[in-house]
Amino acid sequence: MLPILFHIGSFPLRSWGLLLMIAFLMGAWRASKAAPRYGIKVEDYWDASLAGLFGGVLGGRLGYVLQNLSTYLEDPKKAIFSIAAVWQGGMTSFGGLLGGVAVGLYVCKKKGMNTWDAIDLGAPSLAIGMFFGRIGCLLNGCCYGHPCALPWAMDFHPDEHTAILRVHPTQLYEALGVAIAYVLLISLEKRRAFRGQIFLAFCVLYGIVRFVVEIWREQSGAESVKAGLSTGQWASLGVALIAVAAWPLLAKKNRIV
After folding, report:
1. What is the DSSP letter of 162?
2. Phi, psi (deg, nearest 5) at residue 134
3. Rounded CA gap, 4 and 2, in Å?
4. Residue 106 to residues 24, 52, 114: CA-CA distances in angstroms?
5. How far is CA 101 from CA 21, 66, 244, in A?
6. φ, ψ for residue 97 (rounded to 5)?
7. Whether 175 contacts 188, CB under 8 Å
């Protein structure tokens, strides 16, 4: 754990914020290299990526606030400042995914891009973002797992008064899962059969990864278990099933000839 890397004067450079920027730069760089293959101007996609970054941060934070709304409502005045403090962590991956994709696609459409080509181009970059995001969570000391006695179990200290001893490093589990998903997406990209295929594949793969990781992840805030599944598992299942249902429809409608 290393929530704060170092201080520049009195300003703390937080590892989570740094990893967020690395995720954006790496994802946008990969997309810019692949953009010509999709007939998309590199400069236009950089604009869309920057917009998607802000949309992702806003969506991820909003999702976290809604998930923990009762906590924020206890002290509304304090909550206003707390909600804005995104550098302290506290975001949901699905909220970030929805916010980033929605805002990014809006800019893509304004730029005259084919939205399905744009979303396929960005799908592997989403996996890159998830990877670095979870490494950021590891350094920040959040999103850890249940207690365990496995050789790779880790200790976490969310704050100076709390110690979480020997738990599943679920941040690393998810990072590994999305790294594998990235490799599969890059492989599929070379033989894309229809527009939207890469993004749907990402949704299925990430849904599976997150569903499995949730088995060992410690729940927090307003998260709860319903019908034997956590909030994250229900969201993962929903995203994956919607993508599976959309697959044959897009395969017929958006076939590349």
Report:
1. E
2. -70, -30
3. 6
4. 18, 9, 11
5. 17, 19, 18
6. -60, -50
7. no
Rounded distance between C-alpha atoms, residue 257 and residue 255, angstroms = 6
Please name the amino acid found at residue 208.
I
| pLDDT tens digit sequence for 101-155 | 888 888 888 888 899 999 999 999 989 989 998 998 888 888 889 999 999 999 8
- Pairwise CA distance, residues 252 & 247, whole Å: 9
Q: What are the two backbone dihedrals, phi and then psi, of residue 113, each rounded to the nearest 5 degrees?
A: -80, 155
Nearest to 156 by CA among 73, 65, 89: 89
Nearest partner of 199 among 120, 142, 91, judged by Cα: 120
**What 3-state DSSP class applies to 251?**
helix
* Residue 35 in this model has a pLDDT that exceeds 80: yes
Q: What span, in angstroms and rounded, lies between the C-alpha atoms of 124 and 183?
A: 8
pTM above 0.90, yes or no: no
Q: How far apart are CA 42 and CA 20, in angstroms?
A: 21
As given in the structure block, the two tokens for residue 150 are: 């496995």
Residue 166 · residue 154 · CB < 8 Å = yes
